[in-house]
Design goal:
Alpha-Beta Plaits; about 625 residues; 4-stranded antiparallel beta sheet; elongated; alpha+beta; 26 strands; Collagenase (Catalytic Domain); 4 domains; single chain; Immunoglobulin-like
Length: about 625
């Protein structure tokens, strides 16, 4: 059996790393304690795809928290799950620090591994990333309202898959589920402005570590939200401008160039950003997505844009902008800045007195009021500690009003957030002897005063069950082979003709991702005894009247009939000619054959059958006509 890293598999500690651990006071947990600790998963790039490994972790009742394609995952899972994972030789699991000496890993692997060592193994202290800000002040006017982009959108702007009910601009409706994060390191190339900044490897490592740490803090604030992040890093995005030397209002210039570099060429940069985010959602199968533009300021005197701004975002997305040192906050507190701006992207409002947000101001999918705002409409007041007041994340919280704006509200205290606590609907259709239907997820209505056009759900249909006459509940058959979409068509697998004569009731219900069942719908129908006098050769009725064939139940007179009409479609007052051709497939003559035709109530018989009766010799056919 293979051993995991706890038993010294695939890890060689260098003397320098051991020294750092001793200085930092890091200890390794006993195996019995590991189930509650994060783990680092490394893929070798030649085995399973990272999406498949994430699915494996979830199937083993583990939690995926951070995904760094193509080879790095941070999550939580049991020791038993770990043993299952490492049965695949392409997967390594680490519960302790990872020695990076002599590793020839690409940036997409190396930087996340260093972030793991910094943020989970305590080595951020030695990297200088735990220093408090000199004098923490919230970013000035950092929450901006998005310009109207509707005039730039095509009627069908995006054809890819989106969350159920979501539109093109619904890239961060509430902070629940999986979030794709694209981080763009802007690198000036001197073609327009003088080049004064250049990213170093140390700076890029620090940014990766701080962003991961800030987003990790967020996902830990609400376990019921099941938030996870998947990252796409672009470590060298060329732009002709030197962003830090310009006012922040010039951001459209370099944002447009950055999106063109990624292959998005719409005339309007925000349309490009939304298109890119929707592509990210499809690529990484995430629910939401946003962009972080990172501006180097290491050579700038005040570590801010020319107008004093250093971090800001659009309310509700699609992007935030941060600088490396963020004015007086410093790189060690980029995590707090990113956490704050991410909350803006998911509709949380500022609560500082300077922002002058009224306490009755509503925002977010649940239209949460900003009751913790320091501004009461006339003066500043003292309110609870809050990240949205520009406080350092390690010294604060996301208090209740901001939580509701993010979508983190469980009004009935059942452990399921309101945005997920939905009830599906189900409809049942009886058509002759077949029973089919449709189950649909029913999103909670969107109440966001800034963006209420679309009601969105992340749930899918997971089961549809039915029963007949109070019998056992049985799962219906999905028409696409599995119940895993927000809308599912299904078929009931029972035979009506197997039921006894009389009244019968079919009940149907559907279940969604969080385990909620729909209201039970029922249909009552009656099985009647056939009248043999009316069906000597078979009772026939079809929607179109063409090509319906019945056989006689008399084995001694094996008669078959075929019905056709002179019209494929009929309008009121039309006269229809119905022809029944009866074939005697036996050898003996069928004497006195009397045809019977059952027509809908709306049809009036004019004449027929003609003839009324015939003898049909064996092997021959006869025709009867009605009008």
């Amino acid at each position: 059996m293979k051993k995991n890293q706890t038993n010294h598999k695939r890890v060689t500690y260098s003397l320098s790393l051991i020294a750092l651990l001793l200085v930092s006071g890091v200890t390794v947990a006993s195996e019995s304690e590991l189930d509650d600790l994060p783990a680092l998963v490394l893929l070798d790039g030649e085995g399973q795809e990272i999406h498949a490994v994430c699915d494996m972790i979830r199937d083993l009742d583990g939690e995926v928290m951070h995904v760094f394609p193509p080879e790095v995952i941070i999550g939580k899972f049991s020791v038993e799950a770990e043993e299952t994972l490492i049965e695949d030789s392409s997967i390594s699991v680490y519960r302790g620090p990872v020695d990076i000496e002599d590793k020839e890993w690409p940036e997409s692997v190396l930087y996340p591994v260093i972030a793991w060592n910094y943020n989970y193994m305590g080595l951020s202290v030695d990297a200088g990333l735990n220093e408090p800000p000199l004098s923490p002040e919230p970013p000035p006017d950092d929450c901006e309202l998005l310009p109207d982009v509707s005039s730039y959108l095509m009627p069908s702007q995006y054809e890819g898959a989106l969350p159920y009910g979501a539109g093109f601009q619904d890239t961060s409706a509430y902070m629940v589920g999986t979030v794709a994060v694209s981080v763009l390191f802007l690198e000036s190339n001197g073609t327009i402005d003088e080049e004064t900044e250049t990213w170093t490897e140390e700076e890029k490592v620090n940014v990766v570590s701080e962003i991961q740490n800030g987003l990790n803090w967020l996902l830990m604030q609400e376990p019921a939200a099941h938030v996870s992040f998947v990252y796409e890093w672009h470590f060298n995005v060329p732009v002709g401008y030197e962003p830090i030397t310009r006012p922040h209002t010039d951001d459209d210039l370099w944002e447009e160039q950055a999106m063109h570099h990624l292959g998005y060429g719409s005339p309007y940069y925000l349309v490009n950003e939304y298109t890119y985010l929707n592509d990210l959602r499809n690529t990484y199968e995430s629910d939401w997505a946003f962009i972080i533009f990172v501006v180097d300021d290491s050579e700038d005197e005040d570590n801010a844009f020319a107008d004093g701004y250093f971090a800001y975002s659009f309310l509700g997305g699609p992007r935030m902008v941060v600088t490396y040192s963020n004015s007086i906050w410093g790189i060690a507190n980029l995590d707090s800045v990113v956490a704050h701006e991410t909350c803006h992207l998911f509709w949380a409002l500022d609560q500082t007195c300077a922002s002058e947000v009224e306490q009755s101001e509503q925002s977010g999918y649940l239209a949460g009021e900003t009751t913790n705002s320091e501004w009461n409409g006339t003066a500043c007041t003292s309110t609870a500690s809050s990240l949205m007041k520009g406080e350092r994340m390690l010294d604060t919280q996301i208090e209740v009003s901001a939580r509701k704006q993010l979508g983190w509200s469980d009004s009935d205290s059942d452990g399921i957030l309101d945005v997920l606590d939905t009830v599906p609907t189900v409809t049942l259709i009886q058509q002759d002897a077949s029973w089919t239907g449709t189950a649909k997820e029913s999103p909670l209505p969107n109440q966001n005063p800034f963006a209420a056009e679309n009601s969105i759900s992340l749930n899918t249909i997971t089961d549809v069950q039915y029963r007949v006459d109070q019998g056992e509940w049985v799962s219906a058959t999905p028409q696409d082979s599995s119940f895993d979409e927000p809308e599912e068509a299904f078929t009931l697998d029972f035979i009506v003709t197997d039921l006894a004569e009389g009244d019968h009731t079919v009940e149907i219900k559907a279940q969604n991702t969080v385990g909620n069942w729909s209201h039970t719908e029922s249909v009552t129908f009656t099985i009647e005894e056939p009248d043999d006098d009316e069906q000597p050769v078979g009772d026939s009725q079809t929607d179109d009247g063409i090509g319906d064939t019945e056989s006689s139940e008399d084995d001694d007179q094996p008669l078959q009939c075929e019905i056709s009409t002179n019209l494929s479609e009929a309008e009121p007052e039309d006269t229809i000619t119905v022809t029944m051709t009866v074939t005697n497939t036996g050898e003996s003559c069928a004497e006195s054959v009397v045809p019977t035709l059952v027509a809908p109530d709306a049809v009036t018989l004019v004449s027929g059958p003609e003839p009324e009766t015939l003898a049909i010799p064996g092997g021959e056919s006869a025709t009867f006509v009605w009008e």
